[in-house]
Design a protein that fits this description.
alpha+beta
C-alpha cells in the first residue's frame, strides 16, 4: 500500500491604611481588569525588558553572523499498511560554498533525525550533540498524535537542527548533516552506517572498559563529572516541581469554575446581595481565564526548556562515559605493552594512536563544555525571565480584577450622606 498523506490535526481520534488611601495604593490603575497594561506598575516594561533588550541585541548580532538557516514545519501524517508516522518539512537556506544550492526543502520523519544524531555521536563521541525529544509520548501527553504532541516535537526537532548548525567548528560542517539537509531520500545513506557487528563490538569494548575502570581520570574531568551529576539532580527536581505546580493549578482552575455557577445561582435568591454576588462570580471567571493563560505559558515556555536540559544532562553523562572509555582502552593497551607479553612494535603503534585519540577526545570535550555551558545559561535565563514576566502580569491582572470589584462596591460619599440623613 502506498503512503497516503492526511492532515496532522486529528487529535480527536488518534491522536490596609486609611481606607481611601489604601485603595489608592493598590488601585493605581484598574485598566488591567480589562486586560490592558498597568502603566505605573514596575512591570515587564521597566524591569524585565532591561534584560530582554540586551538579549535581543545579542541574538540580532548572532543572526547577522549566521550563514545557514533551518526551519522545521508543516507536519503531515503518513499512513501506510504497517504504520502511521509524521513527516516534517525541513527548509534550509544557506550561503555556504560547499552547498550546491542556496535553498533546500526535504521531508523527514523522526527516525531520520535519530539517524543523524547517531551518526554525529559515532563520528564525534566526545562532542555534545544536542538531544532529541523522546521517541515515545512525553510526560503529560496522552495521545501520540495529538496536536500538542506534534507541535511540541516539531519545536524540539527545529531546535535540534539549529543547535547543530550553531556548532561551527565541527558538527555544522559534518557531511552527514549536509546529507540530511539536502538529500531527497535518506534510505541509501542510512545503509552506509556501521553494521550491527561493528556496533556490537564497540559496545562490548565499552562495557569491558567501564568494568575495568580508570586508574586516574584527569582532575578537570572529575570536576566536570561532579558538575553534571549536580546539574542533573537540580534540573530534574525543578522539572518535576514545575510539572506538579501545573497539575495543581489545573485543579485550582477546575475548582474556580465550580465557584461561578454557585455565586450566580445564589444571586437569584438574595436580592440585596445580588450585585456583589454577581460581581464575585465575574471576578472568579476572569481570574480563572488568567490562570489558564498562566498554565499555558508554563507548559509552552518553561517546561520545554527545563525538559530539554533534563535530556541534555543525560547526554552529558553519556559523553563523559565515552571519554572515560577511550582513556580506559588506552590504559589497558599501555599496561599490555609494559608487560612485554605481546608484539611490542604493533602494540606500540596502537598505543600511540590511542594516546592521540585520548588527547583529541579531551580537547573536543573541553571545547564543547564551555560552549554548552554558555548556551545552557542563555536558554535557561531566557525561560526564567519570560516566566517571571508572565508571573508579574498574571498577578497584576488578577489584582486589578478584584480591585475593580472593591471600587464598584464602594458607595459614593453623597450616597452615604443621604443614607445617614434618612437614618
Amino acid at each position: 500500500m502506498s503512503g497516503q498523506t492526511v492532515p496532522a490535526d486529528f487529535s480527536g481520534h488518534m491522536l490596609d491604611l486609611d481606607e481611601d488611601e489604601d485603595l489608592e495604593v493598590f488601585s493605581k490603575n484598574t485598566s488591567l481588569a480589562d486586560g490592558s497594561p498597568m502603566p505605573n506598575s514596575p512591570s515587564s516594561s521597566s524591569m524585565v525588558n532591561q534584560y530582554t533588550m540586551q538579549e535581543e541585541e545579542e541574538e540580532e548580532q548572532d543572526a547577522n553572523a549566521k550563514d545557514i538557516f533551518i526551519t522545521v514545519d508543516n507536519p503531515e501524517s503518513q499512513v501506510t499498511a504497517i504504520e502511521t508516522f509524521i513527516m516534517y518539512r525541513v527548509v534550509t537556506k544557506t550561503t555556504r560554498s560547499e552547498f550546491d544550492s542556496c535553498e533546500y526543502e526535504v521531508r523527514r520523519r523522526y527516525q531520520d533525525f535519530l539517524w543523524l544524531r547517531s551518526r554525529l555521536e559515532e563520528n564525534h563521541p566526545t562532542l555534545i550533540v544536542h538531544p532529541l525529544p523522546e521517541k515515545f509520548v512525553m510526560k503529560g501527553m496522552v495521545e501520540r498524535f495529538n496536536d500538542d504532541f506534534i507541535e511540541t516535537r516539531r519545536r524540539a526537532l527545529h531546535r535540534f537542527l539549529n543547535k547543530i548548525s550553531e556548532h561551527p567548528p565541527i558538527l555544522s560542517y559534518s557531511q552527514h548533516f549536509k546529507v540530511f539537509l539536502t538529500a531527497q531520500e535518506l534510505q541509501s545513506h542510512r545503509k552506509q552506517g556501521p553494521g550491527f557487528l561493528s556496533r556490537m563490538g564497540e559496545t562490548v569494548r565499552a562495557v569491558a572498559n567501564s568494568v575495568r575502570g580508570l586508574r586516574s581520570r584527569p582532575e578537570e574531568f572529575t570536576v566536570m563529572q561532579e558538575y553534571v551529576e549536580d546539574f542533573s539532580n537540580k534540573i530534574c527536581s525543578v522539572d518535576k516541581v514545575t510539572q506538579r505546580i501545573i497539575k495543581e493549578q489545573r485543579e485550582y482552575v477546575d475548582e474556580l469554575k465550580q465557584y461561578i455557577p454557585t455565586y450566580t445561582q445564589w444571586a437569584s435568591y438574595e436580592e440585596e446581595l445580588a450585585e456583589p454576588l454577581k460581581g464575585v462570580a465575574s471576578c472568579v471567571e476572569r481570574c480563572s481565564k488568567e490562570t489558564e493563560e498562566q498554565i499555558h505559558h508554563l507548559s509552552e515556555v518553561l517546561v520545554p526548556a527545563l525538559h530539554e536540559y533534563v535530556l541534555c544532562a543525560e547526554t552529558l553523562k553519556a559523553v563523559m562515559r565515552r571519554r572515560d572509555n577511550i582513556q580506559a582502552e588506552f590504559e589497558a593497551k599501555s599496561e599490555a605493552l609494559a608487560s612485554r607479553k605481546v608484539d611490542q612494535e604493533a602494540l606500540q603503534e596502537e598505543v600511540d594512536g590511542l594516546a592521540d585519540r585520548v588527547e583529541l577526545a579531551n580537547n573536543a570535550l573541553k571545547g564543547d563544555w564551555s560552549r554548552w555551558q554558555s548556551s545552557m545559561r542563555t536558554d535557561l535565563k531566557s525561560a526564567f525571565l519570560a516566566t517571571a514576566e508572565k508571573n508579574m502580569l498574571y498577578y497584576e491582572k488578577c489584582l486589578a480584577v478584584w480591585e475593580s470589584f472593591l471600587l464598584s462596591q464602594r458607595a459614593e460619599p453623597s450616597e452615604q450622606k443621604d443614607g445617614d440623613d434618612v437614618s
